[in-house]
Amino acid sequence: MKNIILTGDRPTGKLHIGHYVGSLRQRVLLQNSGAYDETYIMLADAQALTDNADNPHKVRDNILEVALDYLACGIDPQKSIIFIQSQLPQLYELSFHYMNLVTVARVQRNPTVKAEIAQKNFEQSVPVGFFTYPISQAADITAFDATTVPVGEDQKPMLEQTVEIVRKFNSVYGPTLVEPQILLASNAACLRLPGTDGKAKMSKSIGNCIYLCDSEKVVRNKVFNMYTDPGHLRASDPGKVEGNAVFTYLDAFATTEDFATFHSPYANLDEMKAHYRKGGLGDVPVKEFLNSVMQQLLAPIRERRQEYAKDLPYVIDVLKKGTEQARDKAAATLHRVRKAMCLDHFSENGLNSAAARIGG
Ligand code: TRP
Predict the structure, then answer these.
(1) What is each CA distance from 138 to 135, 208, 262, 332, in whole angstroms?
(2) What is the per-residue pLDDT across 132-171, written as a single tens digit (0 to 9) for each?
(3) Bridge partners of 7?
(4) Ligand 1: distance of its center to the CA of 255 in Å?
(5) Is any ligand 1 atom within 6 A of the Cβ of residue 161?
(6) How many domains does the chain have?
(7) Cα 331 vs. chain centroid, distance in angstroms?
(8) Which structural domain, as residue segments, surrounds residue 183?
């Protein structure tokens, strides 16, 4: 069996550093590892419309923004197929068939969907399409025979739902679909990077994100305005590292080499944390160090992004070619699915063989 990666993002805004440590960084490593036969990265515009139906221009513009973020981070179109979800009608059809294999109660239990409904104040106004997006996500994943799905932790319920659909499908219609596995970031800080305000998650509407394309000055300002330990008033006070967003970011981004590179008085993060806990280390030098680490990471991404942004026709061409390749793959899977479901009516073993039986 081939090793195949499928993953993607909703194009509803530019990508931020939470996306980067949560999944994007790992996707680039996997792409370059040589361990995968095929890699597909999807711009989930149809899924974005499930809760942005009245804002199609926003979704379209963000297809280009997210594609630029991908290329800037090192997703290489020679190695990974980047494509646009809505341009593959096969995905809509697979979703429709899978809907018969999932109960309404099961979709209602999905914790990510539940949280999103609460967060968007949908209450009684949840669009049916939004409610069922975990099923369409199963279509996205299975259409590519994906074995590995590198995503953020919030996508775990979608993968569980997909595995259930695969098992149900294969037990009813015979072995047809491939069961995927989720691949999460290995470090807790990367899994759940908080916003710069220390709140649970980075979110555009709260305004607590650092974007991959933010300028040097904006990054610096955001780092220096970050939430730390509210009880750490003077440098001499003992400080808390847990729940202190600056240290969570250092857990996610800083390497031991960074301490040497930036001439830190500490050999590693543990030493820095120990000093902060004991008292005598102010927030400013810690933020200064985090800023150096962030700038070192973001500068080359920002520069590459600016270069690609000068040649958007190239980016559009990458998406067009990728979408064509992806469509071929999804069409082959749909062919198998239709056959398994006795929907290949005009093929040799379709209605003709039924006619022979009935007419018999
Ligand atoms: N739900 C994902 C997000 O919000 C996007 C997505 C759609 C996806 N289909 C997928 C991710 C399939 C992985 C696999 O970012």
Answers:
(1) 5, 31, 45, 16
(2) 999 999 999 999 999 999 998 889 999 999 999 999 999 9
(3) 41
(4) 29
(5) no
(6) 2
(7) 24
(8) 4-192+312-359
CA dihedral 149, 151, 157, 162 (to 10 degrees): -20
- For residues 173 and 288, membership in a common domain is answered with no
Same domain, 95 and 221: no
What's the chain's length in residues?
Answer: 360
In-domain check, residue 199: no
Cβ of 6 less than 6 Å from ligand 1: yes
Distance of CA 122 to the CA centre of its chain: 23
Residue 254 near ligand 1, beta carbon < 6 Å = no
Q: Are residues 267 and 325 in the same domain?
A: no
Tell me the HSE value of 289 on the side-chain side, using a 13 A CA sphere. Answer: 29
The pTM (predicted TM-score) of the whole model is 0.95
Cβ 9 under 6 angstroms from ligand 1: yes
CA-closest residue to ligand 1 atom 5: 9
Please enumerate in sequence order all residues whose Cβ is within 8 A of that of 104, keeping only pairs 6 or more positions apart, or say none.
Answer: none
CATH number of the structural domain spanning residue 51: 3.40.50.620
Are 58 and 98 part of one and the same domain? Answer: yes
For ligand 1, atom 14, the nearest C-alpha belongs to: 7
Amino acid identity of residue 196, one-letter, is T
Going by C-alpha positions, the residue among 269, 322, 298 that lies closest to residue 19 is 298
Shared domain for 161 and 63, answered yes or no, is yes
- Cα(72)–Cα(60) distance, rounded to whole angstroms? 19
Residues contacting 226, CB < 8 A, separation 6+? 196, 197, 198, 245, 246, 249, 287, 290
Partners of 150 in beta bridges: 183
Q: Note the pLDDT tens digit of each residue in 178-210.
A: 999 999 988 888 988 999 999 878 888 788 999
